[in-house]
Design a protein that fits this description.
The chain is an alpha+beta fold and 309 residues long. 24% of the residues lie in helices and 28% in strands. It has three domains: 2-135, Nucleoside Triphosphate Pyrophosphohydrolase (Alpha-Beta Complex), CATH 3.90.79; 137-166, no CATH class; 169-302, Alpha-Beta Complex (Nucleoside Triphosphate Pyrophosphohydrolase). It is built from eight helices and 14 strands. The structure holds zinc ion (ZN). The site of zinc ion has 8 residues, from loops.
């Protein structure tokens, strides 16, 4: 089941042992066989032809750009080291790397749909890492400039020695069912214009279990009391660095009292309506596409699949 979640099949060995050795990281980045994924304003290079793969570069090619390259080590595969690096210092996309016309920069979602699920997993890791590093250049304790350590798995402050680790934000996302109906909502914004409804979602709060977060979010957004909360599968989501935790739950109450501040609408939909929407055949209901974990949570419910825990 988990195999269908885009971004979740990263094949790299993250090299926990190797990344503790700064000399190893330095040398590995300069190996001719090492591969670099340069990100330009979080856009990803993808081959322009039909290969539909990430356009990996060498450190030598990146050095020719005449900008500071800070290699972030992603991991190892088949004896080769994989890195990413931010090249946003370049003024525009039409730079030396693109002269051969063999590849183009795509935004992460478009790129993820073009490349293999394994490469989508790698690009998810690269984007989350570069995004975090770009936003944590200074120590949150003393304000001093921080240094990259462990190939990117940490930033350390040389002034107060505080260690800062890349963060992942847990988000619960839940399909609530009541007999043959399921509860879906429209968060404020674009969803209502497209008539799209999705599973209810929200960030896990501090000092809160996954189950407590699910029950709280459903109560806040829809006023529905639930029980029998089950975890199904998860999906890394690099916008900017979340982990989507997919759940199902059963309704104890059915009267909807929506949060007007967060939600444009919340409704019960029948299994038939949802099945049509999943097939793109419903006039009144759209659900998120297969890139989103919500699609798969809704699909499992619509198919009435037995979940094995
Ligand atoms: Zn500090």
């Amino acid at each position: 089941m988990n195999a269908s979640q885009i971004f979740s099949r990263n094949p790299l060995d993250r090299g926990e042992r190797q990344r503790r050795d700064e000399t190893w990281i330095h040398n590995a980045a300069r190996e001719a066989t090492s591969k670099f994924l340069p990100l330009w304003h979080l856009k990803v290079p993808v081959s322009a032809k039909s290969e539909n793969s990430l356009a990996w570069q060498s450190f030598e090619v990146l050095c020719k750009l005449d900008i500071e390259i800070d290699p972030i080590f992603l991991g190892l595969m088949d004896g080769e080291a994989y890195f990413t690096a931010d090249i946003s210092q370049l003024g525009n996309e039409a730079h030396d790397l693109q002269n051969n016309g063999k590849w183009v920069f795509e935004d992460a979602r478009s790129a993820a749909e073009l490349v293999s699920t394994e490469e989508a997993g790698i690009l998810c890791q690269a984007i989350a890492q570069i995004n975090w590093h770009n936003n944590h250049r200074f120590c949150s304790v003393c304000g001093h400039k921080t240094w990259v350590k462990r190939g990117g798995q940490m930033r350390q402050c040389p002034n107060c020695e505080a260690q800062h680790f890349p963060r992942t934000d847990p988000v619960v996302i839940t399909v609530v069912s009541d007999q043959g109906n399921c509860l879906l909502g429209q968060s404020r914004g674009r969803m209502s214009r497209a008539n799209t409804y999705s599973a209810l979602a929200g960030f896990v709060d501090q000092g809160e279990s996954i189950e407590e977060a699910v029950a709280r979010e459903v109560m806040e957004e829809a006023g529905i009391k639930i029980n029998n909360i089950r975890y199904l599968f998860s999906q890394p989501w690099p916008f900017p660095h979340s982990l989507m935790i997919g759940c199902h739950a059963n309704a104890v109450t059915t009267e909807i009292v929506k949060d007007d501040h967060e939600m444009d609408d919340v409704r019960w939909f029948s299994r038939d309506e949802v099945q049509l929407a999943l097939e793109g055949k419903s006039a009144g209901l759209r659900v998120p596409g297969p890139t989103a974990i919500a699609h798969h949570l809704i699909k499992v419910w619509a198919a009435n699949e037995k979940i094995i825990y």
